[in-house]
Amino acid sequence: MARRNAPITCLASETLSDIFLYTLPSRPPLIYSPFPAPTFPIPNSSQAPLLLCQISSRFREIAVADPRLWRSLCTEKIVNPQLMEVWLKRAGDISLSLRIARALGPSPQWPLVYINPSILPDSSYISPIQRYLPILLPKISQCRQLQMVDCFIPQFVPPASFLVLESLSVTIQRTNLPAARWLSHALGRAPRLTRFHWSGPAVAAPWAQLSHLSLDVEPFGPGLLKSVLDAATQVQHLRLHFELAIPHLQTTSVLLSVTTFSIVGGSQLAHSIILPNLTHLIIEWAGPTSNADDSDLPSFLQHSQCAITTLEVWELPFWGFPNVLLSRQVSHSLRRLVIGAHGLCQFFGWLEHHTPGTLPHNLRLLREVDLCFRIDDRPAGAVPGTCNILADLLKIHLPSLDDVILIDNADHETQMESCLVGSAPGTFTLWRSAAIRREYESWWKSVDGHAFQAARAGNGEPSIGFDVPWTNLDDTHYRPARNQNRFANTRRPGYIFT
Questions:
Q1: Could you tell me the sign of the dihedral formed by the alpha carbons of 430, 435, 441, 444, in that order?
Q2: DSSP letter string over 327-357?
Q3: Gene3D superfamilies from the xrefs (predicted)?
Q4: Is 337 exposed, middle or buried (0-12, 13-18, 19+ CB in 10 A)?
Q5: DSSP letter, residue 161
Q6: Residue 248's closest CA among 303, 199, 285, 201?
Q7: Residues with Cβ < 8 Å from 470, sequence gap 6 or more?
Q8: What is the largest CA-CA distance in the chain?
Q9: Strand pairing partners for 196?
Q10: 226 contact partners, CB below 8 Å, separation of at least 6
Q11: What are phi and psi of 89, to 5 degrees?
């Protein structure tokens, strides 16, 4: 420390140890929090806890002695087995949170990470997985949270009891049947398991004790899936993932305990389940399949007779979005609305279709572009602008709404800020990206921005190729053409920017 009499040096070691816990790396909270992603830190000398060991001898002594600082670990990028061994040794006998990713296991996508020794001239070669397993195996049964990605190798991992395991996430290939059999056997001795994510072949698990279930349903088939859903009587947060068309279940499953339902894939499965107590619906992605249409989700809501208070829409075809939003089970009770970037254009189109002529000109121009919303930060009571008009429209169609989040950037680490829009009693909070607002405001004040404003107001010659801000430079698929003004909407009369 630069000053020996700094106030922090007067704190007791127990107090400093508690403070150190707040310095550990953490993820920004996801919008849909029922399925949070645990933080598994990668050892880094510029981050805690290793950074704490470099500040002073006292800090190092306190950090090394506190096993709570070393209980979580991601093994994916560790190249030094000794570092992993020291890290886990400092954790002692405390319960662990481990992420073991495919960088430690054989995978055709990672040929440099795993090499079959039999094809090498040097028979003394030891693969990374062989070096790490003696360190990891004794710790598996000590895990409270365990995440395994493309590295589940049952011939290396003997069956064990998971007496403290509470959360398990496994992603393996659907052809890895030995891993599924091993896990089915091991989970029979996991009395505290309540959170389970599984992507792989069909597996047996203690469904009746789960509160959170995330499942890749295609490998199960209709019959086995029906059995799983009927057995999951305690599940409160359900996430079902399926990409291909699957037949409807022969009979309907009623899940009384589910309050949060997240759907990924075709929406036809919704015909086969009823969730009467559902309040939080998350549509991560719902695309058309051979036996799905835009009425699947509204029909599911109607059959469930639920009252949705929180709706999140991340990816949904245009033809299905208005039907869900205007469903009686949504429109009368919705209080919180979250719309992902790829849904904003469709959302603006829906608003303009149902309430033509009320959107301000700048929103008409901007609604063709996902990343350009939440740029007009006008406080309530000011001249009506984008946010105020949008607030009025939402209040008309969704009278109970008091919180709106329109995501214009897929990066969860983006700083989000809020502003109040509308007027009492119709005021609610609108969340937006601070970075995009600053970028747009800077452009709006530039030469190109003034030219654009003049042309829009009819005080200048129509032009093309405005130099506008663009944040997703790596996303070539959605990048505008070289001479295209991406703020323009050529389909509206009176605006000929191209």
A1: negative
A2: SHHHHTT--EEEE-GGGHHHHHHHHHHHSTT
A3: Ribonuclease Inhibitor
A4: buried
A5: -
A6: 303
A7: 371, 479, 480, 486
A8: 79
A9: 168, 213
A10: 249, 250, 251, 253, 272
A11: -65, -40
Helices 344-354 and 386-397: crossing angle, nearest 10°? 70
Cβ contact 178:200 at 8 Å:
no
Helix or strand (DSSP H, E) at 19: helix 13-21
Q: Is the dihedral of CA 234, 236, 237, 243 positive or negative?
A: positive
Q: Which residues contact 59 (CB under 8 A, 6 or more apart)?
A: 16, 52, 53
pLDDT average per 10 residues of sequence, the chain (498 residues)? 66 91 73 60 87 92 95 82 90 92 46 36 50 79 88 57 90 85 86 93 93 88 86 94 64 91 77 90 70 71 91 67 76 80 56 60 40 36 44 71 62 55 57 60 68 63 46 35 38 30
d(CA 439, CA 468): 10
Residue 94 neighbours by CB under 8 Å, 6+ apart: 67, 68, 71
Give the CA distances from residue 94 to residues 37, 89, 139, 143, 164, in Å, rounded to whole numbers and listed in that order.
Answer: 21, 10, 10, 9, 10
Q: Are 181 and 134 in contact (CB under 8 A)?
A: no
Report the phi/psi class of residue 465: left, alpha or beta, with left for phi > 0 and alpha for psi in -120 to 50.
left
> What is the pTM (predicted TM-score) of this model?
0.73
